[in-house]
Specification:
The protein has 260 residues and is an alpha/beta fold. The chain has one domain: 2-enoyl-CoA Hydratase, Chain A, domain 1, CATH 3.90.226.10. The chain has 11 helices and 10 strands. The chain is globular and about 55 Å long. The N and C termini lie far apart (51 Å).
Length: 260
């Protein structure tokens, strides 16, 4: 595999496992455009590497990823954010053929929670917190949150989580079926590696086709749902509430929403 140098992530290998670690500690691994570009490149490199059977995506003990980089988005308009089409990067994550296990500790909020849900399995530490708090800054999840979360936890739980913006614990997420396993914080990454090693022992082609077949169960309506969600996400950048919500976030004050 060609070795690439990254600024926002770290990569390593262990046996037949490729490990990608989000590495923007000063901003709790906020998902900037640069980070997402690097992440996709790393995932695609591991996907092409015949020595790699399974991929683990992780962050730090304090945060998997606390959300999108709001600073990058706060001044966008509906037209500007549509033209940039940053979600094309997220679609490339969805197209990775090898199984991806998210090893999550601390915050997995907003885009961080959405990134976790693009993975195929989730191992969480007892400190993990999952949530879609976009409603608090005047927008909605735009990278699959309304669609993937609803498919996993059902309409009523998804409504509560997304419309209140509140976080759920690792144990709550496990009870809802969002998380495969919960482990002590000092063991969660080892637990993810153990799961990865178990899968790495299986036939690579069978694993690949099994993943493809499982995802096919969701794909038809998921694509339509993602398109619908995306248009609504874009439209919110014409609202005063989006400007106020993101400005208040950056100014570290309480937002005042007007419904306009």
């Amino acid at each position: 595999m060609m070795t690439l140098t990254y600024r926002n992530i770290l990569t390593s290998t262990e046996d037949q496992i490729g490990i990608v670690t989000l590495n923007r500690p000063t901003v709790l691994n906020a998902l900037s455009h640069d980070l997402m570009d690097e992440l996709v490149k790393a995932l695609e490199e591991f996907d092409k590497d015949e020595n790699i059977r399974v991929i683990i995506l992780t962050g730090s003990e304090r945060a998997f990823a606390a959300g999108a980089d709001i600073k990058e988005m706060s001044d966008e308009t509906t037209i500007s954010i549509m033209n940039k089409d940053r979600f094309a990067t997220w679609d490339r994550v969805r197209n990775i053929k090898k199984p991806i296990i998210a090893a999550v500790s601390g915050f997995a909020l907003g885009g961080g929670c959405e990134l976790v849900m693009t993975c195929d399995m989730i191992v969480a530490s007892e400190t993990a917190q999952f949530g879609q708090p976009e409603i608090n800054i005047g927008v909605i999840p735009g990278a699959g949150g309304t669609q993937r979360l609803t498919r996993v936890v059902g309409k009523h739980k998804a409504m509560e989580i997304i419309l209140t913006g509140r976080s759920i614990t690792a144990n709550e997420a496990h009870a809802m079926g969002l998380v495969n396993r919960v482990a002590p914080v000092e063991l969660y990454l080892d637990e993810a590696k153990a799961l990865a090693k178990e899968i790495a022992k299986k036939s690579p082609v069978a694993v690949k086709l099994a993943k493809e077949a499982i995802l096919k169960a969701f794909d038809g309506s998921l694509v339509e749902g993602l398109e619908f969600e995306r248009k609504n996400f874009y439209m919110l950048f014409s609202s005063e509430d989006q400007k106020e919500g993101m400005r208040a976030f950056l100014e570290k004050r309480q937002a005042t929403f007007t419904g306009r």
